[in-house]
Each structure stands twice: as C-alpha cells, then as structure tokens.
From TrEMBL, chain A:
Chief place of localization: membrane
Keyword terms, alphabetized: Cell membrane, Membrane, Transmembrane, Transmembrane helix, Transport
The name this protein goes by in its record: Carbohydrate ABC transporter permease
Top-level lineage group: Bacteria
UniProt subcellular location: Cell membrane
Pfam families, alphabetized: BPD_transp_1 (PF00528)
UniProtKB/TrEMBL annotation, chain B:
Spans traversing the lipid bilayer: 39-58, 95-121, 133-154, 181-209, 289-309
Family, as annotated: Belongs to the binding-protein-dependent transport system permease family.
Record localization: Cell membrane
BP-aspect Gene Ontology terms: transmembrane transport
Major site of localization recorded for this protein: membrane
Protein source organism: Bifidobacterium aquikefiricola
Keywords tagged on the record: Cell membrane, Membrane, Transmembrane, Transmembrane helix, Transport
InterPro entries referenced in this protein's UniProt entry, alphabetically: ABC_transporter_permease, MetI-like, MetI-like_sf
Membrane disposition: Multi-pass membrane protein
GO cellular component, as recorded: plasma membrane
Compositionally biased region (Polar residues): 1-17
Official protein name in the record: Sugar ABC transporter permease
Amino acid sequence: MNNNRVSTLAKRGFGVLVLLLLACIVAFPVYYSFMGSVMKNTDIVSSPPRIWPEHGLTWSNIVTAVHLIPLGRQYLNSFGSTLVITASQILTSLLAGYALAIMKVRGAKIWFALFLGTMMIPGEAIIIPNYLTIASLGLRNSFIALVLPYLASGFGIFMMVTFLRQFPMELVEAARLDGCSHLRILWSIVLPLSRPAAASLAIYTFLTHWNGFLWPLLVAETPQMQTIQIGITQLQSPDDFNPGLTMAGAVMAVVPTVIIVALCQRQIVRGLTAGSSR
Amino acid sequence: MSTSAPRFAGQNSSVHRLQSPVEKPEQERKPQRTPITQYWYLLPAGIVFCIFVVYPLFQTFRLSVSGTDLFGSADTFVGLRNFTRLFTNPDFARILVNTALFAVYTVVPTIVISLAISLMLNRESLVNRVFRTVFALPFAYSVSAASIVFSAFFNPATGLFNEIIRQFGGSGVGWLTDERFALLSIALTTVWMNIGYNILVLLAGLGSVPEDIVEAARLDGASGLRLQHYIMIPLIRPQLFFLIVTGTIQSLESFGQIHVLTKGGPASSSTTLVYDIYLHGFANNNSNFGYASAEALVLILVVAIITVIQFGGMGRKVDVA
C-alpha cells in the first residue's frame, strides 16, 4: 500500500519532470526572442551563447528597429485592418446566421452549403484574380485593399449558424407576436445572447488576420502601407546579421497575440474546435 | 429547393397546404414565400463571396488557359498549353514532391508530439494550467515572427543549432543553405508554430471525454499507457482526424516561412506549390499569371480531394453517434 503510493508519486514526479523539460524546449524560442530583443548583441552571438545577459539590458534594439522602418505606422495598419476585418466578419456572420438559422429563409440549407463551400477554396489559389481585381479597382497599396476580401468568411457564418441553431426560439416567437421587427430582434435579443460565440469568433479572426502574411505582402507596396508582419522581415539583412534587432521586431509583432493567447485560451479553443466535432 | 420549413409558431401551414393545394393557391402560398427583405441579411456576406471567392474561381480557370503578356494582362487563349508546360516541367515534379514531403515533415511530428504532451497534461491541476499556457504560446507567433526567431537559430556561424552540434564535437551544417536540410529546417519551424494549436484542440477533446468512462476503465484495471491507448486515444479520434486534415491542408498552403527563411532555395529544394505560384505570378514582377493559375488549379484540386475525404470521415462518425 505504502509502496504503491510511493511509486505513483515517483511516477507523477517523473511525468512533471518530462513535462518541464518539454516545456523548456517549446518555450525557449519565446524566451530567446523576448530576451534577445533587450540583450546586447555581444551577449547574443557569443560562443557558447549566453542565455542570460552578461553586459546588461538595452533598449537600443527596439529603438533602432522603430527608426529603421515605420513600425508605428505599420502597427496602426495592422491594428486598423485587423479590427475592421474582425468587426465586419462578426456583423456579416451574425446577419447571415440570423437569416439561415432563425428566419430560415427559403433555401437556407442551400445557402448554408454555398457559404460553407467558400471555406474549401484555398485563399492562396485564388490570390492572383483577387490581386488583379484590387489592381483594376486602383486600390493597390491602400487600406481598403488590406481588408476588402476578408469582410466576410465562411467559417464565421458556419460558427454563427451552428450557435444560433440552438437559440431559444420561444424568445424570437414571443417578440414576433409583440410585433418586433427582425432587425429589432437581432439587435436587442439575438446579439446580446450571442456574445460567447461572437467573442470566440472575434478572437479567432483577430489572431488569423493579425498574423496574415501573403495578402499584405502582395497589395501593400510602400513601407507606409505594409503591416507589421511584413515590416519586421525588412529588419533581416543578408549581409549584416543582427539578431537583437530582428528579435526586437519579432517581439513587437507578437506582443498583442501573446497577450490574447495567454488570457483567452478557453475562447480560442471554442473557436478552433468549432469545426472538429459534429 | 428546401421543403416548407416552419418559420414561426402558428405559421406552420404545411397541414393547410396539404388539405387545399388547389382551391386557394394564392392565399396558401403566401406564408411559404420568404419576403424579399429577408434576403438582405445574406447580402453583405454574399457580395463579398461573389467578388472574392466565386468570381476569382472562374477567373482562375480562365487565366489557366490564357497567355499573359509582360504586364500581366491575360490577352490570348492558349488552350491547355500552360498545363502541358506544367506537367512536362521536371521542376514541377520536384515541387509536388517537396509539397508532399513538407506535409509529412510537418503533420506527423506535430501530431505525435502534441498528442504525447496533451495526454500528459490532461489531469486538471494548477501546475498543468501553467504548462498549458506555456505550450500554447507558440500559437501566438505569427509565421513571420517565428521564421525570424528560427532563422537566428539556423545561422551557420552564430546560431544555436550549430552551437549545440559543435558542443558535441560536430562541425555544424548549413541549415538553410544546404539542399538536403532547407525543407526540413522550414518544417521544424512550422512544427514549433503548430504545436500550441494542436495541444489546445486535443486538450479540448480530452476534456470532453466523459468522466465515468475513464472511471470504469480504471476500475477494470486499466491504467497508464493502456488507459491512454485503449480509452483516451480512440475517444479523441475526431479531434485527431480534424487536426490531421486541417494540418495537411494548412501545410499545403504554407507560404510565409518559406518566403522568410529560404525564398524557395537553394536550387528550389524548398519550393512548394504555393511558393511556386508566387514565384511565377509575383516575384520579380514575373506576372506569369497563366502558368501560376494552372498551378493554382492543381492546388484547388488537391485540397478538394482532402476535404472530400474529411467529409467522408465525418459522415462515418455521425453514423456511429
């Protein structure tokens, strides 16, 4: 009995040790990038490499990065485009979800299937025509170009319809009998009760589009219109290897998403797994 | 078209309609008809999809049978010439192999590592909650940020990986400059990026395994690896399947890490299908949209096949439930 308990304790202790080792390996690039962004290059590139700064910390990497490229402006581009995309996707998904799951418009199933079908088309495969569309509208290198193709998403509609199918219909019916218009019901009954689904969708959409790469790379031509994800790659210079500087850029690009991931894991999971079951 | 779906209580007129389909068709059909205003709700999403998904889909077909001039306007019909060029190009065969290898290099290790970690993390405790957050952190890293961090590790002179090899007496390798290692190095970066996401999904699956099933298995004497193998893994098969399918599609669509780390080199040893689309369509103002669109159609086809397999798998699961 006692022996047994000792052995389970030992086993659990061993498990925690293994997890600790794995966690250190997985977290090391995170630690390294944050530390590297405030460490002096003499410490970063010394051999063997220093995990802990010997020569003190410095803000110079971050300061240099901000001066080399218009990072402030690119931050604004990233935040602005991501927020517009997120707000728009929630709105368009909620409207479509209301029509398909609650009003059950004629042919709702077919509409739903069509919207879902858009999820199957890889964005990278249709990027050439989309680029040509934006170019022919004269929108290259504009804020509108960054957001326009992403104002609605099949995944958002899928999430909203799945959520609203379980919506208490009695509420809607009662409001209808009281003479409420659909817009009114959507605004004052469905929207407040959809907050959990909307929050999951918002977090998911924010993460996805904050981290977007190919589309901003194509449509934003000047540094002034680029997003932070493209901007930080400009800090890499093939002949002048400067790890502190590139780490500073990388860290600036991930701070918002690191905060979201650390705080909102539950909602992220809800968003991510919406497609995995049922 | 869909059958008469009841819209609101009290308006379910399907019974009426069955009784008098002929006498008063005008009056009876009315509740069936969706007022045109209700379609307004579908309009915003519909317009976006029409312009940026449906129309481009047809455009891709049109471009793939067109020749493009120096400025990228598709002016001539060339039939299947882009496709014959594609399939007779030995480089394209290599690119397809790279794409498939990249999927294997990324999906298999990601699934194995995240499954092992999430099985260890399954028990609810404060320590595990901290671990979960740590393991989820790579998910916050954008493709460009992760690639920048790893490109520092890959640096042949000062990078961490060669330092480790040298500590063990080796001489280090050219991670991104050696044809044998470039694709593997990009895959390593991708595995790191994807572990967090996979662990979150698997933990959600493990969390929804009913407690009594696990208890019953324990009472029957199952523990440790046997419990994991016979109870837990089969019960999270839907999540595993989902991750394998979406992970494969995601790896087919990878772009950023290749662009930041190797630009497809050396000697196109790390060029995948999507990167080749970019190289022909956009790099150096190539504007070879016809050839690139033919490649895009291949990509659409491959993703469609994988999606159909996914739907097949989901259908089977629904039958079991």
